[in-house]
Amino acid sequence: MKRSLIIILLLLCLASGKEVYSQATSPKYSNEFLAIGVGAKSLGMSNTGVAHVSDVTSGYWNPAGLLDISSKYEFSLMHAEYFAGIAKYDYASFATPIDTSSHLGVSIIRFAIDDIPDTRFLYNANGAIDYNNIRFFAAADYAFIFSYARKTSLVPGLKLGANFKIIHRNVGNFANAWGFGLDAGAQLKIKGWQLGLMVRDITGTFNAWSHNSELVVDIYTQTGNEIPENSVEITLPKATIGVSRYFNIKERFGLLGALDLIASFDGKRNVLIKSDFASIDPNIGFEFNYLKKVFLRFGLGNFQEIKDFDESTYTSYQPNFGLGIRINNVFIDYALTDIGDQSESLYSHVFSLKVAMDKFSDK
């Protein structure tokens, strides 16, 4: 029963709720699979990375960071499972320099629930249950991100980047959507401090939904549900401001500290700082290293005010932990993350691999 309830809740998220059925909507939570994060390093630091990211995962966190890649080719892979393995999350990326002033990157993300039972034909013509009639489908979200970064002479040390992303979402044969959007990012180093800005969906990301209503019209009519219609869903812009700094601790040890402030502009959210104009969700992360070969990470984020049954309130948070090891040009990272309520059953194990190949000699 608990597993079925989780599947239903996830499907509601994947379909972006009832609002998506209107002619043009801007739901508060849209394309949320793109807010999960990528790379066990940043996930272990509670999704902090906008200011200091400097590898192939920059295509997600901040495309300006691609310019700090010193290899000719860099690849990354990640796999994670959420909600006790019900939802699968996969990520792959590639980056390469064009010249000494610009880089290109490509990223692919898939978040899906596979093998969902379709029980519309559970009963046969005689009214008896026939489990052989059960079919299965998947509810999946895909993102294809194309990144470009370039140095600029406007301000010394300023790096700029942009993403063009294509979104594809489908719920079996029942509904699917295609969309597109733009992101923009910047990074700047000032006296040891690293500053970053990432604006996602800067022009709004548009998803055009197409529904096969004839597949569900009979059941929806019997249950009194609204028949879904073709529609356009708009994802509103979201900005992240980040700051980080690296500290050398003696000769062999180092510490990286980072703070990201994620600002949304779609009304009040249940976050630490909220107003009618903007809601701000702070994330903080730390990474200790030994000889830059062994890494230990910790972070806190997703602060929320929760109302208890006795009407009192308390603040919840999401703790993240991570480990990493570097073997020559191969990076293996692990993160232990929680959905947000410190529930043991909802902890997720995230593994990622990064490989750098061929030194970029022109740098």
UniProtKB/TrEMBL annotation:
It comes from the Bacteria. This is PorV/PorQ family protein. It comes from Splendidivirga corallicola.
